[in-house]
């Protein structure tokens, strides 16, 4: 891409949050018609920078200029007026409204005192045609696939005449195929003069699509590079600030006897809709079974049913031969389950409890942590000190509230607690979601250690890379069913991606 | 993690947490007293004389001290009841009703049991039995609400209020009907006097302070121990702080909710029992106008900590008790005290509101930070 006009420039941006310098003298610019990727780990300051550009926060220092003019952006209203649109990671859509209603929300067109849906719909159709965004303005948003909902968000920005579109981790919720689609749309947009800031922490994506890549770490811009002049290893290095091993070192391991056996279970969610239909699989000692799938295809309910947080409506779950269908979490835990829950702050921790208390959260009621109903603080203390050093939890002391730790260290507290018990089965649901590369590396290593020790591991993850790196066998979940179970060595990302998107399994 | 310094010495940590917890209530009281003083001045009174009267009335003599302790006793029990529920994540507005239930049944055991049995009971059986039945019935009364919450999701705030109506009106019905004192001179809705064997012995001759006060302090300690040192307390607190994590940890959340409500109701029932067996020797309609509601205020002011509740109960007791002397010295209406109490609460509550708002703000900013776990 040749030197073209700079449409957006941020100079010397500094933003301080209590205890954290989120942006430290950040410089960033965006040229017309380019895709500028902003790469960095969680917490590098990418989102802060974008929130400043979008007017959700105001910078302490520095200036932002749009189209060469210094801009004062105090609220999203200002940024929209300047032609900046943002697609958030979590969509800001109202499911019971139609596409047209969602698009006009906050900027409603009114005719004769009522909403002028027809005019809006016509404009949406026009935008759709112009940019190759295929959306039906009259469809309800709720039932639309995630990929289409994302398009609605993009249409929303274009409807407001955005010339600069910020996409915040847009691929996190997409299948590989949907991501490909998004990339096509992004190219269509830039071909028509829209400029895109693409926020992500995925190396492959930036190399595939970005025109320029800016890497941030700890609130600072490390460098801005062209994709042709760099590679994954170098980018990872810049992101983390040290050499990173991107692959998991995993030896072949002979699977042993069956530990977890799931026979035809169906599960209903809290709205009483059946989200898991007749699912069967087994996990053997010494193997990792990865369950791949786009979020929201029944993985949450499946893992809740297996760990006792929810009762299956039919089917049978056995661990090491013991029938544990519909049993309470305590019974299942005592049968040898270690559970790394999907939502660490909701299920995994009591944030206002100390690290020591959290490390005994599932064991507080028996020796040595309690004796005749009385908690033994000494035992809690010793246990936590042992685990803190064994699992390298970075905490000032065992008495610090778990809520004060970083996400990676919170997850380590859970991992330490769950893997240090005498377990036969580990169910790890999104074990590294939102963590920094260092913590991911560590937790992956711990999971493989368990497998090598002969423990059965069920790994549920929306990150295909994680599934591919850790699993011995891979099951793909789609709309509540296991659509395929394959040997991890005999499959490809593309094949898994197709299954995740609902392609039928061809009889071999 | 950031700049927070966390001491490893348990004593230092304890002192730190005490000063953290007591700062806001202390400032709230101070502010309320100052504003109260200004108002006294505005209505033409002498604030210093008024407060002097208040202090004299509350602490100025043996009798004043004794009366303050008498006031504080039900406040401590009922405050503990509300606080225990708070710790378990439940808002027990029904202490007033549970207290009435406990008082009625304690009184019933107190005056009617010897009649039913046909012989007198020794004090070491009759008195504990009367107290126990008061706790039990208060506990069951609240336990119903706990069970409704656990099994149907019915909200405890609504249900405790409804149960208050039932309890208070049923009490009125009983005290005007089958439980009414039949002595020819009586026109009041009250039970007969309880038997000597169901009465708490006096501590000092001629002072109304009774062993119930000592029991209140003991129970406060016991509740602290229960909450902080036992597995049951761990379960109650975990359910209160994060029911999802409690379920994950294998805690029976439903059972814990019911148990928490029952314990809370038992404490409220105990407040009623002690008033009957220690002070009034009967249950009289309207003896407790508002102990159960003041208890909510006391639990809030005491930050749901047993020690805080004892102190808050004393403050409320001193104000109630000292008000008469204040009125005598300054001719100011006793209602002024209610106003100062309300101000204190307003500031404690307003602090909660401010912190609440502040927390939303800091949470809003923390959302950005939480994406920044690595940082």
Description:
The complex is a heterodimer of chains A (about 500) and B (about 375). Chain A is of the alpha/beta class. Chain A folds into 3 domains: about 5-240, Rossmann fold, CATH 3.40.50.300; about 245-335 and about 420-508, P-loop containing nucleotide triphosphate hydrolases (Rossmann fold, 3-Layer(aba) Sandwich); about 355-415, no CATH class. In chain A, the strands form 6 sheets. A 6-stranded mixed sheet of chain A has the order 6-9-10-3-11-12, sandwiched between helices. In chain A, a hairpin with a 2-residue loop joins strand 16 (about 315-320) and strand 17. The radius of gyration of chain A is 25 Å and the shape is globular. Chain B is mostly helical and about 375 residues long. Chain B has a domain at about 70-320: ABC transporter involved in vitamin B12 uptake, BtuC. Chain B has 13 helices and no strands. In chain B, helix 2 packs across helix 12 (about 305-330), helix 4 crosses helix 11 (about 290-300) and helix 5 packs antiparallel against helix 10 (about 255-280). Chain B is globular, with a radius of gyration of 22 Å. Chain B starts with 9 loop residues before the first helix and ends with a helix.
